[in-house]
Amino acid sequence: MTPATIRTVLGELPPGDFGVCDAHDHLFMSSPLLPGQELDDPAAAEAELRAFATLGGRAVVQWTPYGLGRRLPELVTLSRATGVHLVSATGLHQAAHYDPEQLRGLDLAELFITELVGESAIESAIESVDKGVDERSVRAGLIKVAGGYHGLDAHARRTMAAAAEAHHATGAPIAVHHELGTGALDVLDLLCGRLGVPARSVILGHLNRFPDLRLQRQAAEAGAYVALDGPSRGNHATDHHLFDTLAALAESGHADRLLLGGDTTTAAARGVPGMPHLLNSLRPRIIREFGTGLAESVFVTNPAHAFAAHWKRP
């Protein structure tokens, strides 16, 4: 078996080199559901990354999937310019984020596998900034999928089946958007129960938006990673439940399943408080409340394991 590595936009990285990580965010994203709020400004993205890096941030996992304005060449340029490791996603969001014609006729498993494997070696694609970057050569490092509110519709089931096929072919981790934090057990039943994806390869996003501690513990007990993301969104029951969730999962022996991310999805939210909030506000509070051990797990050790894979080539 090949050693586990994290697949960044600049190539393979040993997990021990990943560093302090924002485990769920968006540098670029556009959706018809968010008109006028596109994240499409490379200069603003660079400023956000540099502010994060100044505080010790070393890695950002971008969950923007296929068809939503990922701007893959810019990710390569930004990673080279700032020194921050960037992981890009393939996969699909909910159907509402797409024009139906955009998805018609797609073989989703083939699409995901192609984006994970890449059409040529990344090193040849980034030999020189002057030569530019071929988007087809930027390999994704995870598969993003999405459930619905308290359930899985036909689009979600189709997408997750394709994600499972791509996982089995490549080893890639699967990251899941849960609408308002719901449906985690349905996702685990489908991905891990019926489709055979190991729970350790699944990252469950937004579970803090539905602050059911029993459900969160059950997800962690299954072996999945629990991503507590969007920590500035008080209307999503995030800020005022975050530390209760951290305490409950850590005290029940699941500190090794916890991840934190900012999940900035609109231009209006960038910088308010943005990626730096994780490190200049939340990290000191976590250290004060729980000690340096939990902070190291949440920001360094756990992401290094969650986003690493024994990559296979189909």
Low-pLDDT windows of residues = 120-131
Main beta sheet: 6 strands, parallel
Strands in their spatial order, largest beta sheet: 6-7-8-9-10-11
Supply the helix-strand structural class: alpha/beta
* Fraction of residues in H or I helices: 25-40%
Averaged pLDDT: 91
Full CATH superfamily name: Metal-dependent hydrolases
Shape designation:
globular
As for the number of domains, it is 1
The top-level CATH class is Alpha Beta
Walkthrough of the structure:
The protein is an alpha/beta fold and 314 residues long. It has one domain (5-9, 18-241, 250-273, 291-309): Metal-dependent hydrolases (TIM Barrel). The chain has eleven helices and twelve strands. It has helices spanning 42-54, 72-82, 100-103, 108-117, 122-125, 154-170, 184-194, 213-221, 239-251, 276-290, 292-306, and strands at residues 5-8, 11-13, 21-25, 59-62, 85-87, 89-91, 142-146, 174-177, 202-205, 225-229, 258-261, 308-309. β10 (225-229), α9 and β11 form a beta-alpha-beta unit. α1 (42-54) runs parallel beside α2 (72-82), α4 runs parallel beside α6 and α10 (276-290) packs across α11. Residues 120-131 have low confidence and may be disordered.
